[in-house]
Amino acid sequence: MTRLGFLLDSESCIGCHACTVACKAEHDVPLGVNRTWVKYIETGTFPDVNRHFSVMRCNHCDDAPCISICPTNALFRADNGVVDFDDENCIGCKGCMNACPYDAIYINPVTNTANKCNFCNHRIEQDLEPSCVVVCPTHAIKVADLDNPSDTITELIAQSDTAVRAPEQNTRPKVHYRGADAASLDPLRTAIAPDGMIWADTTAQHPTAVPGEHGVEARTAYTTAHQMTWKAKVSSYLVTKAVAAGVMMVAALLVLLGHGGEQAVVGVAPAVTAGVFLALTGVLLVGDLRQPSRFYYLITRANRRSWLVKGAVVLGAFAAVSAAWFIAGVVGSVGALQGLAAPAALLGLATAGYTAFLFAQCEGRDLWQSPLVLPTLLAQAVVAGGAGYAVMELAADGPDPVAVQWVLLAGLLATAVLVAAEVLGRGTPHVEAAVAAMTRGRYARQFWLGGVVLGLAAPAVLVAVSLAADAGSWLAAVAGISAVVGMWCYEDSFVRAGQSVPLS
Fold it and tell me: Which listed residue, of 127, 240, 339, 448, carries a Cα 20 to 30 Å from 190's Cα?
């Protein structure tokens, strides 16, 4: 059996970019993106300064998270161990880009599909070497058959002091570096120019980069920029499905409390609200795809290991139960609502929480790996449910407004505790860098003013006042609206901060 990998000899690399150019020519790679590129770092202080070169690319991992998360099997493992891709299957969900710990995948601006180094597999199948190997003037790029212990390059890897990038991710990468400076393989250990240009003069560095740590003092002089992939649409989808899930969960609670006979507010309104927000969720999800016309591939070409696929199944099942709830409410069947209460609550929890497992498959984003993500999403669904009902009660008197307000307050308090634990806890350098970006950096104002003040503190005070003074439903409705707007601010800062940490 063949299991191909690379040995990249940084001691021999002269930084000529021939590999980058050959790769672009071989695969018609557009401007602005790269399958392979050369990273320059500088160590030391003037006049004792050294420049080091490292070739960056897909690591063709033995445990490739990009394959697991890809919902349509567009990324797959070839028989020779190479992680290859099929443009015809890709829907442009960008999940693979967040799953990759190496910034190796990009969206091709011409095809709107995910591309990366595929080891020039079309050449390998013809017994030819990859184009980068052919053009390298110093033979710094070498192909190894890692399953063949007598292979010359495999022996060299075994005998040399080689390193791999991000070994803590446990992806078992098959790109080995010989003679690479440690700072070149860990982007948090270098200062980096904002534009990545080779002659840029900068003292800026990432919040967790510590010059001199482990004897390393370096700056990145040249690298390739990587764009943020999941933005406002993903943040909004987290909120819309929280509202849909939350109102049905509160409706189920009200049925269990004996209010199933309240046809309009318990039987009809929550199902309609859930339907509207589920529809918005679907629009956001499809709209965020780079190939939205292929969205049905989630069903026809599904990779059942992907939580994008599992999430679509959960959303479909929740929509079906919500539709059944609506019918039961229209005909006034209290017994049917009682029978649907448990499935509605459970599927509401699944709808709110499945994204935690999707984020967990995004192994390149350490912030999203936190065990607090799931309980936070569930607590936010409780907040959204209480908020939704508080607003609905402005149009029609609810059966138990005090219970709804207590639900909203409990959700706010639980969310506050979980967010505080996330912010104050310790984690990997990538986690701490992301938390720093969220609380002290680029997203701090949005997090504190939007997520904390508008989303948690203000609505909690308003609900508490409403409960203490029996101020009426309008105050709770204002609190609910504030909580949902603030929830979006928090989610958007969380989603963006998680992607703000450089991986290459």
Answer: 448
**Token pair recorded at residue 159:** 């005998």
CB–CB of 385/249 below 8 Å?
A: yes
Contact 142, 7 (CB under 8 A): yes
Residue 226 has what pLDDT? Answer: 81
In this predicted structure, the answer to whether residue 279 has a pLDDT above a threshold of 60 is: yes
pLDDT for the residue 471: 60
Q: How far apart are CA 99 and CA 366, in angstroms?
A: 10
The structure's pTM equals: 0.93
Residue 408, helix vs strand vs coil: helix
Which residue do the tokens 């996330």 mark? 422
* Residue 117: Cβ within 10 Å count: 26
Rounded alpha-carbon distances, angstroms, from residue 77 to 15, 82, 121, 336, 415: 30, 6, 11, 48, 40
The pLDDT of residue 180 is 94
CA angle centred on 214, ends 212 and 220, rounded to 5°: 55
Q: Helix, strand or coil for residue 275?
A: helix
Contact partners, residue 196, CB within 8 Å, separation at least 6: 220, 222, 223, 224, 225
Residue 459 CB contacts under 8 Å (≥ 6 apart), including other chains: 387, 408, 412, 479, 480, 482, 483, 486
DSSP string, 47-87: TEEEEEEEEE-----TT-HHHHH-TTS-EEE-TTS-EEE-G
Q: Give the Cα-Cα-Cα angle 36, 38, 41 (nearest 5 degrees).
A: 145
Report pLDDT for 125: 94
**pLDDT attached to residue 217:** 58
Query: What's the mean per-residue pLDDT of the chain?
Result: 92
Residue 127 CB neighbours (<10 A): 6
Gap between the Cα atoms of 224 and 212, Å rounded? 24
pLDDT at 192: 65
Per-residue pLDDT for 322 more than 60? yes
Q: How many CB atoms lie within 10 A of CB 156?
A: 16
- pLDDT confidence of residue 262: 80
Query: Cis link prior to 47 (omega < 30° from 0)?
Result: yes
Using 50, 70 and 90 to split pLDDT, how confident is the model at 195? low
- The DSSP line for 202-252 is ---B-TT--TTGGG--EEEEE---------HHHHHHHHHHHHHHHHHHHHH
Neighbours of 226 (CB within 10 A): 18
Residues in the chain, how many? 504
